[in-house]
Amino acid sequence: MWKPALFACALAASIPARADGGLTDLEQRWLRLASPVIAYARQQRLPLDIVVQPQPTPGQAPLAMAYVDERCKLVLSMRGNPEAGSTLAAIPEPLLTPVVEAMAAHELGHCWRYVRGAWHTVPAGFSAGREAEDAASRESSVRDAWQAMQQTRREEAYADLVGLAWTLRKHPQHYAAVHAWLVAFRDDGAPPGNHHDTLAWVRLVANPLAFAPAATPFEAAWPPWQAGLAQGGAAHTHLHK
Known about the structure:
The protein has about 240 residues and is mainly alpha-helical. It has 8 helices and 3 strands.
């Protein structure tokens, strides 16, 4: 969950694969918790499909987003995947609904970017600054990997902000707790500048007033995302050769 969006030219069947044709109890629980976000995607006319991976998927993110044939695919990878259950078990019970909704809204943020053809793009006038200088000094193979990592990192940052903007709209009483949960989740000891190092952006919205009023969570996330870019959030990177 909250990992890089899943890319594929073809996905496993978009229908459940159990002999009785039904979803597992765990899949149903995840979908119930995420259902307000899924309903919102329909309301916003986002081309969203739900895909259930029928084969065992150990180690995969339980919830991820793909974009195939101009449609977003919310992918559930939960069968034979202990992380699907342990993820829910690790969330404090009072925060279970708002945190899972924030996760689903995060994935919807990816969909919003895909649909607009904006994936891995930055706002007009964005200057990579130190990021570009660091990239230029690296060997080509390392430079390409580093730049790809930064592109993913920026998308993860935007999606995290969408998730928090959703929380502010739908569960404002839990905003501080969900924000603190996300900070702890992202502050996982991984090297700075990794794909999921979004803390430079997440910390900008510790105060919910950092989100300006907007019609959608996607639009609400835009100003703090740009602010993080302007303050060099994508530049604090140390990739070891």
